[in-house]
Structure formats: structure tokens, C-alpha cells
Q: What sequence folds into this?
């Protein structure tokens, strides 16, 4: 990879400890889930896989940039969350838990659980990495 192509993925490495905004009130992961940290090292390959999985499974509702403006967002009982606008920070463990368990309101599925569509935990953690990049946007090296 050339230096310009590496810049964005490598700059994303700086996001490891940045909290992700919480998209929905009243939907919190249990303490043991929030205590988890991402075991998958952040790398250009991990981000590429996370992006591909997000695009396939999440962007229909959350939109390509995580703003809750995907083509299917308006069809649910609740609009899809804007991942970039929420005020309460989520950590990696909570994002992973939400991706894995989904959300229901009675019989209505508000967000599907992705354990069947994305069966490998490692791949769901890669989606967490990509969501962090969506939330924080491109990172510029210090001094630029």
C-alpha cells in the first residue's frame, strides 16, 4: 500500500480509546458486556473487513456514514439511530453487545442480532472498529 492509502486506516489506530456516542436511550449493555475491550488489533485489514460487514448488514438502516439515514431506516417502529449524534458515550464492549444481541420491543425487532449473519466474534469486533471510525471521522496526524 502507498503512504496516502495507509494514512486513513493508520490514523484510525488513534481511535482505540475514543468513546462512541450512545445511539439509543434506555438500551444499555450489562456491566460485564461494557467491561469487555476489543481483542482484535486495529489494522487496515480489520477496518476493511469491518467496513464490508457494516456496509452489508448495518448501512441499510444506519446509512453509509452512520447517520441513521439508510434506505430501510424509516420502516421500523423506531427510526434507526444516528451513531454520530448521540450524547452518551458507548465503549467497545457495549457496541459489540448491541451488534450481537440486537434490540426488540415486544415482538417487533428494532435491530436484529447479528450472531447468525456475522457468526465470528472476531468479525463483529471488526465492525466495532469501523463504527469507531464512522463516529470520529478521519483523523489527521498531529501538527497538520
A:
Amino acid at each position: 500500500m502507498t503512504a496516502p492509502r495507509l494514512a486513513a486506516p493508520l490514523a484510525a489506530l488513534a481511535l482505540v480509546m475514543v468513546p462512541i456516542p450512545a445511539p439509543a436511550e434506555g438500551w444499555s449493555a450489562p456491566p460485564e458486556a461494557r467491561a469487555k475491550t476489543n481483542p482484535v488489533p486495529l489494522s487496515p485489514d480489520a477496518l476493511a473487513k469491518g467496513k464490508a460487514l457494516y456496509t452489508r448488514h448495518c448501512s441499510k438502516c444506519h446509512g453509509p456514514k452512520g447517520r441513521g439515514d439508510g434506505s430501510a431506516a424509516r420502516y421500523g417502529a423506531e427510526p434507526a439511530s444516528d451513531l454520530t449524534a448521540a450524547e452518551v458515550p458507548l465503549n467497545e464492549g457495549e457496541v459489540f453487545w448491541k451488534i450481537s444481541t440486537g434490540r426488540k420491543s415486544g415482538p417487533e425487532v428494532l435491530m436484529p442480532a447479528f450472531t447468525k449473519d456475522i457468526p465470528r466474534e472476531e468479525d463483529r469486533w471488526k465492525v466495532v472498529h469501523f463504527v469507531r471510525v464512522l463516529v470520529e471521522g478521519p483523523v489527521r496526524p498531529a501538527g497538520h
Notes: Residues 24 and 57 are 19 Å apart (CA to CA).
